[in-house]
Write a structure and sequence with these properties.
The protein is an alpha+beta fold and 394 residues long. It folds into 3 domains: 20-94, no CATH class; 115-309, no CATH class; 360-394, no CATH class. Helices cover 36% and strands 11% of the residues. It contains 11 helices and 11 strands. It has helices at residues 52-57, 69-80, 115-132, 145-158, 193-211, 218-229, 233-243, 275-288, 297-309, 340-350, 380-389, and strands at residues 14-18, 23-26, 91-94, 257-262, 267-271, 290-291, 294-295, 312-313, 334-338, 356-359, 366-369. A hairpin with a 6-residue loop joins strand 10 (356-359) and strand 11 (366-369). Helix 3 (115-132) runs antiparallel to helix 4 and helix 3 (115-132) crosses helix 10. The protein starts with 13 loop residues before the first strand and ends in a 5-residue tail after the last helix. The relative contact order is 0.13. It binds zinc ion. Zinc ion binds next to loops.
Length: 394
């Protein structure tokens, strides 16, 4: 009997769900627990046998852990071998194994925060670290201490950065037009501190692009971004020249350059954080999000949508239910699991052209700011509550 093949196009409305999990830090490979995604567990595959004894002994109901649990964890680790050698540290790891029978994987988590709001909040902490560390001018001056503290608190609320461990797909290559392939440095995706910093920077760059009025020139966007990031003036002017594809500008960034990618007739500078990531995203925006030197809303939205969808996984199997048999009350909802990063890009695509998007410092909701330089809260009541708690002072 021959199999019959046929294609049918189906439009499915998907509710995007970031994979939220309790997390902690691993300072090196020896601190990675065996239930870490990509090592011992994967959200879309059954957990491996080696993890079985750990899952059976885990104190799910909050009781005291049995004395043999620690030994079981050591044994699971030795069965799995060392975690992937390319992983960088410090990195966020799961603080407890997944409750694999529960579709959201973890229960009893702190209240959720939209990934976009989370990245906007993280962006503020990152900005303070950058200002303090002289934007990475001297090696080792960027410790990302504030950023790390903020991330520890809100990562369990906004979701994992790279839950599917796809490897290197968080920031797709930027390819120059006119036959020249210029790859801008793209760190491998993962859950480490620097990947989170790169992701935060990236979302904040695109939030700036999405916030501008229609018809803004690319040069005007760069000026706006430099101001929004509070970037040092001299280096930023050089950066803006580079981002516009001009030859000059590299001298101004001399203290931040660690080398060149050599592409024969083209030399792409390899810059330290955050300049490398900024250049990568500004170039992406120039090549794919503008038209005739002006930001193009339609193109930016398309770019963010397709990029965001890359990080979305919709687990099947599906079964078609005719609309007339559907019960009232929303049965048949389809959930898509996403990384916090890709979910934030999709959220940005959905909010194109609304104005300047900020995260409320009290409740964390994303809101439209009329005076973005001064706005901190989504509503008068949030401002009042924050002042009552004393956070709004100063
Ligand atoms: Zn609020």
């Amino acid at each position: 009997m021959g199999a019959m093949q046929g294609n049918v196009s189906v439009a499915v409305s998907v509710t995007i769900t970031p994979i939220r999990a309790p997390v902690g830090w691993a300072e090196g490979p020896e601190e990675v627990p065996p239930w870490e995604p990509g090592y011992g567990w994967h959200p879309l595959q059954p957990s491996p046998e080696a993890l079985g004894p750990v899952l059976r002994l885990w104190p799910w109901a909050g009781e005291d852990p049995p004395p043999e649990l620690a030994q079981t964890i050591v044994e699971a680790r030795s069965k799995l071998g060392p975690p992937p050698g390319r992983w960088r540290y410090p990195r966020l790891v799961l603080a407890s194994p997944p409750e694999v029978w529960a579709p959201p994987f973890w229960l009893r988590l702190p209240p959720p925060l939209s990934p976009l709001a989370g990245f906007l909040k993280l962006g503020k902490a990152l900005g303070q670290d950058l200002a303090e560390g002289g934007w990475g001018r001297k090696r080792g001056t960027l410790t990302l201490q504030r950023f790390r503290e903020r991330l520890t608190a809100i990562a369990p609320r906004m979701g994992l950065l790279d839950p599917f461990r796809a490897g290197g797909r968080l920031f797709p290559e930027v390819v120059e037009a006119q036959g020249v392939r210029a790859r801008h440095f793209s760190p491998e995706s993962g859950e480490d501190l620097w990947a989170w910093a790169e992701a935060t920077l990236t979302v904040n760059v695109w939030a700036a692009a999405v916030s501008l009025e229609r018809g803004e020139a690319f040069a005007g966007f760069l000026a706006y971004l430099g101001e929004a990031l509070d970037a040092p003036r001299g280096p930023w002017e050089g950066f803006a020249a580079l981002a516009q594809g001009e030859a000059g500008g590299l001298e101004a960034l001399e203290g931040y350059r660690v080398g060149f990618f050599d592409y024969g007739n083209l030399q792409v500078p390899l810059l330290t954080f955050p300049w490398g990531g900024l250049l990568r995203e500004a170039t992406r925006l120039r090549l794919r999000g503008t038209k005739g030197g002006y930001l193009n809303r339609h193109r930016i939205q398309e770019l963010l949508r397709s990029w965001g969808l890359e990080g979305l996984v919709v687990p099947g199997p599906f079964r078609y239910t005719p609309p007339w048999s559907q019960e009232p009350g929303g049965k048949g909802r389809v959930y898509g699991l996403a990384s916090a990063f890709h979910a934030a890009l999709l959220e940005l695509a959905g909010r194109m052209g609304e104005g300047t998007l900020l995260a409320c410092e009290h409740c964390g909701q994303v809101f439209l700011a009329e005076r973005p330089r001064r706005a901190r809260f989504c509503s008068p009541s949030c401002r009042a509550m924050a002042h009552k708690k004393g956070v709004g002072r100063g």
